[in-house]
Amino acid sequence: MLRIVDVILALIADVAPLADRVGQRDPSLAKQLRDALSSAALNAAEGSDQRGARRVNHYAIALGSAREALVALRAAAAWGHIDGVPDGVANRFNEVIGTLVKLVKSVRR
To answer: DSSP states of 41-60 as a string?
Structure first.
């Protein structure tokens, strides 16, 4: 399995308390945030066992889900549900998104 899956799982642990805070004011946004991060982990893991177009598809879905989760956190901050995206969380999101971009590009070649 890809190392990035473990990074995404660590990101989930980092985001969980933020999702709980968001959920107190906007349960729907918190659910979408949780679902997106879970999707990123699950699709990255599933993609690592696929070949060809199926692999690209799973990595692309994981990438979209990671971006969705980051924007959900930013939206929660914009709504005033949280005080912003902590630097450590933002850095881990950047690592995940950057790695998934590279994986999608490398598999498409």
So the answer is: HHHHHHHTT--HHHHHHHHH
pLDDT in tens, 59-101: 999 999 999 999 999 999 999 999 999 999 999 999 999 999 9
The whole-model pTM stands at 0.93
Q: Tell me the residue range of the domain where 83 lies.
A: 3-108
Say how many C-beta atoms besides its own lie within 10 A of residue 11's C-beta: 24
Q: Which residues, 6 or more positions from 62, have their beta carbon under 8 angstroms from its beta carbon?
A: 8, 39, 40, 41, 42, 43, 44, 47, 100
| Number of structural domains found in the chain | 1
